[in-house]
Amino acid sequence: MNLPLFRRLFALEFKRAFAYRAEFWLGFLGNALTQVAVAYLLWSAVFASTGAHSLGGLTLRDLALYYLLVPLVERITLGAEMSHISGEIYDGTLNRYLVYPVSFFGFKYVTSLAQSLVYAAQMAALAGLCLWVFGVPPAFRFTPGGIALALAALMLGTVLYFSLAACLEMIAFWADNVWSLMVLLKMVLHFLGGGLLPLVLFPAGFRAVLELTPFPYLVSFPLRFLMQDITAAEAVRGFAVMGGWILGLSLLAGWIWRRGARQYAGVGI
Amino acid sequence: MRYLRLYLCFLRFSAGKSMEFRVDFFFRIVMDLAYYGVALGFFHLLYLHTPTVAGWDVHQARVFVAGYIVIDAIHMTVFSNNLWILPSLVNKGDLDYYLARPVSSLFFLSLRDFAFNSFLNLIFAGGILAWALASYPAPLGAASIVFFLLLLLGGSLLYFCVHMLFVLPVFWTHSGQVLTSLFYNVTRFMERPDRIYRGWTRLLFTVLLPFGVMASFPARLLMEPFDPWILAQFAAIVAVFFLLVIGVWRAGLRAYSSASS
């Protein structure tokens, strides 16, 4: 591990994230605010038609905060869009990483992590502002322990998504273009992770199956610690499942990298 | 007739181009199918918790969802690739090649790339719409369904116009990324029934940014008692936005400074 080099790389990526400030903030606010607005308007209509006070134990205010936090959590776990590994394979710019004195995956993960930390600061700022203006809704309880566990889940989530996305991006060693595959991953992740609909509203049997997949751990799992909606046993099992997926996907990514690098021509288009 | 022949040429070239990236061709089909699955799955799960949303039951919601899936598929097939590349053509000055041709530049640049992989998805989307209409419990009538399909074409045209209005500021800003990304975020408002928009949000999403009109109004005209005001508003909005695109396009060309932009 070349720690000083990784520290410098991290600082560089951190600065780069702020290079285009208008795009950075507009992109972030556009995604977060439209998601909250459309969810709030829809759920207002649902509550109005059912006459219920809560659904799945969530009130309208709970759902509003949930839908505000979802895009923020996704930005953190998804990090820096995998830094376009497939594009670098396709156009041959992957060559430079092969001569760098650091691990390729280490380099890419640090790049992604720097972006995630910027997004985490955004999340704290926006969520803090909303809580200050609207107060804490009933389902949420912000305790130091809950926040620490949510941060731990987010941190592991960045590694999990990185491993998952790396496996798919490296299909570009054999396929010509994997852009649509990455969009597909994000779409499935958003739905099955609980981004479109809280998982508590999914049928129990389906939810039990989902908990064996990586998806809930990238979106709703960190939020459950802020909602105190998780038992100690569920938390331990969740972290264990995450660990298992990270280990499995990391081994798979290493295997794909070795196979892919053997047939990589480095010519580009 | 000349434009029809030209469009057939576009189709021929696009067919050859689409097979250039065969794996991506397949991935794109899977991606769009996942989008349809997520849309249907979301409403299915939602209706496990409520009998109606914005006055529609699950059967009506399926017809609405199938309608916006068809609009999206038409857009992805006919327009999306062209609008995606437009900011780059403007910024690099490559628009010059198209302005010199003896045909409408707006026609040429909006339609030259036909996405054959998305065309397969348009067939799937049509199948979903057929299923939603066939499983609808009340009789709908052939004429009503044909009228609904025509309205969906109008909704597609409106979707293209709004997308274009998010892209065209590139003539002045020289950066299309933020508005393009914003457009894909606000399209979420098309994917919900228009009756959830009340007060100022109704004005916003049925007039100024008419996402609430594109699929909801055709569905209302099909499944609810005929309301001439809804039809008139739909037709007026499509016409106004189409004229607006032509006006902004001409203004953009006047501001375009060719290769040096």
Radius of gyration of chain B: 19 Å
Low-confidence stretches of chain A: none
Strand composition percent of chain B: under 5%
Q: What's the SSE pattern of chain B?
A: HHHHHHHHHHHHH
Radius of gyration of chain A: 20 Å
Q: Please, what is the oligomeric state?
A: heterodimer
Shape of chain A: globular
Sheet with most strands of chain A: none
End-to-end separation of chain B in angstroms reads 35 Å
Number of distinct helices of chain B: 13
Please tell me the total number of domains of chain B: 1
- Percent of residues in helices of chain A: over 70%
Fraction of residues in helix of chain B: over 70%
Number of domains of chain A: 1
Q: How many β strands of chain A by DSSP?
A: 0
The largest pleated sheet of chain B is described as:
none
Derived from helix and strand composition plus strand pairing, the structural class of chain B reads mainly alpha
Number of strands of chain B: 0
Question: How much β-strand is present in the residues of chain A?
Answer: under 5%
Plain-language structure description:
The complex is a heterodimer of chains A (269) and B (261). The radius of gyration of chain A is 20 Å and the shape is globular. Chain A contains eleven helices and no strands. Chain A has one domain (3-263). Chain A is mostly helical and 269 residues long. Chain B has 261 residues and is mainly alpha-helical. Chain B has one domain. In chain B, 75% of the residues lie in helices and 0% in strands. Chain B has 13 helices and no strands. Chain B has helices at 2-18, 22-46, 58-92, 96-99, 105-111, 116-134, 142-167, 170-173, 177-186, 200-208, 211-214, 216-223, 228-255. In chain B, α3 runs parallel beside α7 (142-167). The mean pLDDT of chain B is 90. The A-B interface holds A 22-23, 26-27, 30-31, 34-35, 37-38, 41-42, 44-46, 49-50, 55-56, 174-181, 183-184, 187-188, 190-191, 196-197, 201-203 and B 21-24, 27-28, 30-31, 34-35, 38, 41-42, 45-46, 48-55, 175, 177-178, 181-182, 185-186, 188-189, 191-193, 195-197, 201.
